[in-house]
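Quick one, T. Sequence first:
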Amino acid sequence: MKADQKVEAPASGGSKKLIIIILAVVLVLGAAGGGAAWFFLHGKADAGEDHDEAPAKKGKKAKKPVGPPEYVPVEPFTVNLQPGESGADQYLQVAFTLEVSGLEEKENIKNNMAKVRSRMLLLLSSKHAAEISTPEGKIQLAKEIVAQLKDPFEERGTPQEIEDVLFTSFIIQ
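Structure tokens:
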């Protein structure tokens, strides 16, 4: 019987160690979770204060706003395309919507719509119908539109944050 008691004693001591280890892990995880919660809750409030000061000092945006994108519709317009192989006049009637990063960017685009339309007129009128009639050509055109519109509207201004161009009407005649 004494041998049986010795065998049971280390088992109960081992279970105590296991309980202590589990409690220590739970405490460490709880402390890490609490620290992470504090960092994210207080860190965002502090970052918001720095974010307001940073554009005033640098003239640049610190980071993109979080949230759903905003959409800016561009009214349809018609341009003359470059003459094709046949030499006949061809026209493009196009309407699209710009996907921008936030409300501030949406207002900036709306306030500078004349510049947006001018840049698009110059870009589109330099194209041949054969270049933009294929799906690949339309994708390339969308990339070129984004590149054109990301250029700052004012000299030494910040570039626009345009995410995508979504064609809503595209007619070549």
